[in-house]
Specification:
By secondary structure, the protein is an alpha+beta fold. Helices cover about 50% and strands about 15% of the residues. The strands form five sheets. Strands 1, 2, 3, 7, 8 and 9 form a six-stranded mixed beta sheet that branches. Strands 12-14-15-13 form a four-stranded antiparallel beta sheet, with helices on both faces. It has a three-stranded antiparallel beta sheet with strand order 4-6-5. About 35% of the residues are buried.
Length: about 700
């Protein structure tokens, strides 16, 4: 007969960010335990509220399955003496396994007879297994930040106050640092009972519901989502979609009741971000929008409780928001008393990084780097002016009062203040877009000026930190340099920018010397950054679904033009679908294996034998055509031309011995192969392709 096991870890209020990962570990740890202990079960369900992590195992077997182990002992020739009596070797084996001679038998193993023993182990009861193991299951739930409390030798996100452990109707006790383990749970901190006796595991969910705790987070999420949408529809509005905020609110309430409040009309004159940011980031309110995505004078929040005295709660939330928006309005009105450019000088008082100077220094570096990027992309004069102007103003909003109070508004307020100051739309938008993308999957800059500024800002940070020997190590990346590098790569690919990373690094490194006077090993720093970008490019291409060997073939030592590498990867992927590509690859791998031994690519025609002339002339006839295709980025066409060398290459290796004793002859033959190999490398290294 199957059983149902319930365990609830009761805690002080858990941080919302910790809950989902803790549930994943809880379920994983329990699943691992049951499988290792040979206990069958039907399903494991996990639930969480701010004050509890709950796991329920359904269809749990009563006992472990019995185990029959086959154990190999000594060889028969040393297990028995001449009279057939057990030797010390066999006696030791039997003693170690706790068996007698009747439990042994012999069996052939690789042509020789060995002694074996079959040992049956009766399965333990589920109660015995869980009693021994549940403390470990709980201790193995880890958190980014954990704590100890009350002298206990256990770490957890927040103190554990109680544990419910119940198999069907029976309490399953175990020892965990003196924490009470029983069938007593607790309800909502203010509305429910402080002691809830759970007599049967089947009653758990409903008993908690009766005490104002909805343990199923999916149910709470639906109550919040659909209840909020119903409220805003009554106001002819739409809830601003924000799954992260919805998830956070779900994890901070036990009994959700959505409510809707009003925003005073006077505050709606502020830029929308000035209103939305305090609502979402500080108060966890949902903004309400009309069908054109314009802010309506309403907000939705979620009460952790029932509907009693709901009007009082609504007024309280309106008052709290009003105070926040009053502060925001005061800061905003004070900030716009002078144009954004007037704040630039104040950046001299804010340190960007101790060894890299102030934000003013960073602004000057970004300006120069933006000019270089614009020149590399051959943008028009207007775009160049816009990018340069946006670079000058890019960090000015960081010294305004509003951004000082609400740091999340950096860039957004830069854009708003630029508009108020009379800057054009492109310059204003570029100031915001410098921070894009902020995370994986985020929006990318829409303007060329914004793309230039974003690349310049991110590259300046990467180069600066590498120059003072601060760079990501293992899983540590406190300055988000990997994210910044991926941002640069994403922008380049999205905008199809043919820009030289090598030249940009050279410029950025020089600017640091010029503006900040920093001394560093130029070649080492540059090589380290190029290798850093190479790793990010490889990972991104693989995540795009490009085969790892194709990535290796196109991402070689030269990673100068990222967009060009993506074109090569795509065209190589399609080219490899050709029927004869495998045979061509084999031929070029033979070329590559020897070409690396060549001292140069200079070929003396007079040293060529009749058997070598065909390959030499065929290559010479194709060289200009291949180069022309490469210059047009018609890499598939170039690969087809290279592929036509397959037969001459095969004939060459059939008839010509390359590694002869005559040094001049050997080097000349190697040089011919190197010429072909070097041309191939302009597209990719076909020798890296697995066929």
């Amino acid at each position: 007969m199957s059983k149902k096991y319930l365990i609830e870890i009761g805690t002080e209020e858990l941080p919302a960010r910790d809950i989902n990962h803790a549930l994943e570990q809880f379920k994983k740890n329990m699943t691992k335990l049951l499988k290792e202990e040979r206990i069958d079960f039907e399903e494991i369900k996990v639930y969480a509220t701010p004050r509890r992590l709950t796991l329920i195992v359904l269809g749990l077997d009563e006992r472990q399955s019995d185990l029959v182990e086959k154990l190999k002992g000594p060889a028969k020739r040393i297990a028995f003496d001449d009279e057939g009596s057990p030797t010390k070797a066999l006696m030791g084996f039997m003693r170690g396994q706790g068996i007698d001679i009747s439990s042994t038998y012999t069996e052939d193993f690789k042509g020789e007879e060995y002694v074996y023993a079959s040992i049956s182990k009766e399965g333990k009861s589920i109660e015995a297994i869980l009693k021994e193991s549940m403390a470990g299951v709980i201790k193995n739930i880890n958190f980014p930040k954990s704590m100890k409390w009350g002298g206990k030798n256990i770490r957890f996100s927040r103190p554990i106050r109680w544990i419910v452990s119940l198999i069907d109707t029976e309490v399953l006790g175990f020892e965990l640092e003196g924490i009470p383990v029983s069938n007593i749970s607790r309800g909502h901190r203010f509305l429910g009972a402080s002691n809830i006796e759970i007599k049967n595991a089947d009653d758990y969910v409903e008993l908690l519901r009766d005490n104002y705790v909805i343990v199923d987070q999916s149910e709470r999420r639906d109550i919040i989502r659909y209840g909020s949408e119903r409220l805003v529809k009554e106001k002819c509005g739409n809830l601003q979609k924000d799954e992260e905020l919805l998830e956070e609110i779900t994890n901070i309430v036990e009994y959700p009741t959505p409510i809707i409040g009003r925003i005073k009309k006077e505050y709606l004159e502020l830029p929308a971000d000035v209103i939305i940011t305090p609502m979402k980031e500080h108060l966890r309110y949902f903004p309400v929008l009309d069908d054109k995505e314009r802010l309506l004078p309403y907000f939705v929040t979620v009460r952790n409780g029932d509907e009693d005295h709901i009007e009082t709660v609504i007024k309280g939330n309106e008052k709290v928001l009003g105070a926040r928006l009053e502060d925001a309005k005061f800061f905003y009105m004070d900030d716009i008393k002078k144009p954004l450019e007037d704040y630039v000088e104040e950046l001299k008082n804010i340190v960007f990084q101790d060894k890299l100077g102030t934000l003013y220094d960073k602004t000057k570096r970004i300006e120069k780097l933006a000019v270089k990027i614009g020149e590399s992309l051959e943008v028009g004069e207007e775009t160049e002016r816009n990018a340069s102007r946006a670079a000058l103003l890019s960090k000015a909003d960081l010294v305004t009062k509003l951004v000082g109070e609400f740091a999340e508004l950096q860039g957004k307020m830069g854009m708003e203040y630029a508009k108020v100051s009379g800057e054009n739309e492109i310059v204003s938008l570029a100031i915001l877009e410098q921070y894009l993308p902020r995370y994986s999957g985020d929006y990318l800059p829409t303007t060329t000026a914004g793309s230039i500024l974003s690349i310049a800002d991110k590259l300046d940070t990467i180069v600066g930190l590498f120059s003072i020997n601060i760079h990501p190590t293992g899983s540590q990346d406190p300055f988000g340099l990997r994210r910044k590098a991926l941002g640069i790569i994403n922008i380049i690919l999205d905008k199809k920018l043919n820009v030289s990373i090598d030249e940009l690094l050279e410029t950025s490194l020089y600017i640091y010397v010029d503006v900040n006077g920093i001394a560093f090993d130029y070649n080492k720093v540059k090589d380290d950054i190029m290798e850093f970008f190479k790793g990010r490019i490889q990972n991104m291409f693989i995540q795009m679904g490009i085969r790892y060997d194709i990535v290796d073939a196109v991402v070689g030592s030269d990673i100068d033009d990222i967009y060009d590498m993506k074109i090569k990867a795509d065209k190589l992927t399609r080219w490899l679908e050709n029927e004869n590509s495998s045979e061509i690859l084999t031929a070029f791998k033979r070329v590559a294996n020897l070409a690396e031994k060549a001292p140069s690519d200079h070929v003396s025609k007079e040293l060529l034998t009749e058997d070598e002339i065909e390959l030499y002339e065929k290559y010479n006839n194709l060289e200009d055509k291949i180069e022309a295709s490469i210059n047009k980025k018609e890499y598939d066409e170039a690969l087809d031309l290279l592929g036509s060398l397959k037969d001459p290459i095969d004939k060459y290796f059939d008839k010509v011995m390359v590694m002869v004793e005559d040094e001049d002859l050997k080097n000349n033959r190697l040089s011919l192969l190197k010429k072909i190999y070097d041309t191939m490398r302009e597209i990719c290294d076909l020798s890296k392709i697995v066929n």
